[in-house]
Amino acid sequence: MKALVYYGSGKISWEDKPLPKIEHPADVIVQISKTTLCGTDLAILRGGVPDVQPGRTIGHEATGYVTEIGPAVQDLKVSDHVIIPCNTSCGRCEPCRKGLHSSCERGGWLLGHTIDGVQAEYARVPLADSSLFRIPDGVDEEAALMLADILPTGLEVGVKRAEVGLGDALVVIGAGPVGLATILAAEFYSPARIIAIDLDDNRLAKAREIGATDTINNKDGKAREKVMTLTEGRGADAVIEVIGNPATFQLAQEILATGGRMANIGIFHKSTELHNETLWTRNITLRMGVVDNSTVPVLLKMVQAGRLDPSSLVSHHFHINEILEAYEIFKNAAQEQAIKIVLSTDAAKKAGSNKVSNDNEFIRQIVERVLASL
Ligand SMILES: [Zn+2]
Ligand SMILES: [Zn+2]
């Protein structure tokens, strides 16, 4: 089979690898149908995730079909159509019992991190019964793919931890894939304003298209003043920080209203300053964490009911054999107007799932690129 293999900073290759095998009784093998690239994959590529060893197949968001089950698997069967979420969990250890599946003592972020991941034609998924989600009939597979990471991350780590509520002024800092997914999830709670802040006008346009009431391009560094104007000088009831750098963390603190709640989704690589000296009298709450994927079943119901369409976050389609080209596009996301890039395998074609590798879209992109190069 083919897989995307990481060979150290900046080096990836699409190459042959042996088919994965059942290694533990609770494993299943999944034939990947669709997978997608994540900002975390780019961090790995930059050498920013040292736990990822050279030789590792990366990728942690996919959908596919179960082709083999281990002897301890009870709830899944061969041919089940499933979401492979970013974190796996046993459901039985102490953190799992507390609902902290991302901190599972036997699981957590394994795929594409400490074991081979899902940017491949097949993948071994451990702790399968308690980790995979069956895709109900009538749910678009690309919508389901968005539930492997970005939608539950936006909802669980962002919207729920910031306690977004009816009539709130919400600010989302960062309108990349996770920021946009956060906006979609926030709409379930009916905030009065959803203000998106970014440096990229295309992403801000997308934010407006999917539900942001106001957008701010912070190229001029005036986001604080603009949020204050939009909120009659009070600031935001809820701020969700999706970037993970000291400047945006500082901005988040400056735009919080009294009693405001801040949730951090962004992954920080540096320590930051928390201004207790000005925040302590103002009843501020700060929360952070990693997605537990506990809301995937609810999100699937919302997709099934037609009340959530996360496939609107898909900007590009490729066949998985074009994955290196897809990475080039994703690395230049702003220039290429890329949000989520879906890669489909021949399994998707066989299953007749819709929007398969979207040949027309692919041809359109090629023609556009050729025309642009003339
Ligand atoms: Zn991800
Ligand atoms: Zn566990």
TrEMBL record:
GO terms for molecular function: oxidoreductase activity. Keywords: Metal-binding, Oxidoreductase, Zinc. PROSITE patterns: ADH_ZINC. Gene3D superfamilies: Medium-chain alcohol dehydrogenases, catalytic domain (3.90.180.10), NAD(P)-binding Rossmann-like Domain (3.40.50.720). Its cofactor is Zn(2+). Its EC number is 1.1.1.-. The keyword Metal-binding applies. It comes from the Bacteria. It holds the Pfam family ADH_zinc_N. Belongs to the zinc-containing alcohol dehydrogenase family. This is Alcohol dehydrogenase. It comes from Rhodopseudomonas julia.
